[in-house]
Design a protein that fits this description.
By secondary structure, the protein is α/β, with parallel strands linked by helices. The protein folds into 3 domains: 40 residues, no CATH class; 109 residues, 3-Layer(aba) Sandwich (Rossmann fold); 43 residues, no CATH class. The protein is built from 10 helices and 12 strands. Helix 3 packs parallel to helix 6. It is globular and about 55 Å long. The C terminus is likely disordered.
Length: 268
């Protein structure tokens, strides 16, 4: 298994002077899939944004070691170049920019030491389209413009395949997906993670519901309540959550069920 690819220790973070994360500890070893589950407002999306270095999210205590390097002071693009990737819960539209041009720009930004010209990139992209069984019509459209929920998430998974990061964070990838789209998107993630060198990658899934974990099966599940991980376990933990909900965990840690936390981005 080797050394951990991601180690989070005592992580505290705030948004607009309001503390959201209150001491998160997490370790991901290459080849492992971890899932973070929790109710609305527990800090799940905040954790994803803090890991990726989104502006407006301030780490006040603790460390984020990625491949042995503390990345807390690195910008988002610097973290991406080192192999971190975040798939958004709500991918944004970029009118006038085709998916293929967006992907090539993203690839060349992340892989600055191995940039590809248009023809080289198109050949590389074709291998990813075939892997994920995605039609070329998707890449010729403008990024997310007029896309259905399933198409947006398929485009995100295609970006994941193209950038080929060492550590991927998927923030509520199941949001807005019907059961068929969920199966297709999950199958794509599994193909990426299980292909050659999959044992060298780490994957962190963030979700409300157990249904995503039926298709992408994690090795370890963590329950995040009140900005802290309060329980970790195997797949049986997801089934327990599905059956009993989160209130039992709030009671165990003394968390107020009406506690006002937010996963929303700070106002610009």
């Amino acid at each position: 298994m080797g050394e951990p690819i991601l180690v989070i220790e005592g992580l505290h973070a705030q948004v607009e002077d309001k503390e959201i994360l209150r001491g998160v500890d997490l370790k991901v070893t290459p080849g492992e899939i971890h899932a973070i589950m929790g109710p609305n407002g527990s800090g799940k999306s905040t954790l994803a944004n803090v890991l990726m270095g989104k502006p407006g999210y301030e780490v006040t205590e603790g460390s984020i070691l990625f491949k042995g390097e503390d990345v807390v002071d690195l910008s988002t693009d610097e973290r991406a170049r080192r192999g971190l990737f975040l798939a958004f819960q709500y991918p944004v539209e970029i009118p006038g920019v085709s998916v293929v041009n967006f992907l090539r720009t993203a690839y060349n930004s992340v892989h600055a030491d191995h940039k590809l010209g248009p023809l080289e990139f198109r050949r590389y992209l074709q291998t990813k389209l075939e892997l994920l069984e995605v039609g070329e019509e998707l890449i010729n459209r403008y990024v997310n413009q007029g896309f259905s929920g399933g198409e947006r998430k398929r485009a995100e998974v295609l970006q994941l395949a193209v950038l080929d990061p060492a550590m991927a964070i998927l923030d509520e990838t199941d949001t807005g997906l019907d059961i068929d789209a969920l199966r297709e998107v999950s199958a794509g993630v599994n193909k990426i993670f299980n292909q050659d060198q999959g044992e060298e990658r780490g994957l962190l899934l963030i979700t409300h519901y157990q249904r995503l974990l039926t298709y992408i099966q994690p090795h370890i599940i963590h329950v995040l309540i009140g900005g802290r991980i309060v329980r970790s376990g195997g797949k049986e933990l997801a089934l327990e959550l599905e059956a009993k909900g989160y209130e039992q965990f709030r009671a165990e840690v003394g968390a107020d069920s009406t506690e006002e936390l937010t996963d929303e981005a700070p106002a610009s």
